[in-house]
Design goal:
alpha+beta; 51% strand; NTF2-like_dom_sf; 114 residues; single chain; 25% helix
Length: 114
């Protein structure tokens, strides 16, 4: 299976709010770097992040996928519902590194729209 297909399949679980099925596509040592914000080390920190920030499943609008070797770059828009129940809108560029068919590392550039 191509890494782009793996990522799209995993993200379908996020869109349904099935975060545990999404996490099954990540390595146990997965590392997520949100540039200028935070770094998550390991699946437990990612799980805690999703619990804190995904009050409802995020809404994605994907623009481009570019795959080369063990890397997939994705650009698009994401809407997240905040604690007050209002959506916040962001543009993003994610660069994923895959290892043996699993998501091993994310470098995410996320910019809030105003």
């Amino acid at each position: 299976m191509k890494n782009t297909t793996i990522l799209q399949t995993a993200n379908e679980f996020v869109a349904k709010g099935d975060y545990e099925s999404f996490l099954a596509y990540c390595t146990a040592e997965t590392k997520w770097v949100f540039v200028g914000d935070r770094v998550l080390h390991g699946i437990e920190e990612v799980r805690a992040y999703m619990k804190e920030f995904y009050h409802e499943p995020p809404v994605f609008k994907l623009e481009k996928f570019i795959e080369e070797g063990d890397f997939v770059m994705v650009t698009g828009e994401i809407k997240l519902k905040n604690k007050a129940g209002r959506y916040e809108n962001f543009d993003y560029c994610d660069i994923w590194r895959f290892e043996d068919g699993k998501m091993a590392e994310l470098k995410a550039f996320v910019i809030e729209k105003h």
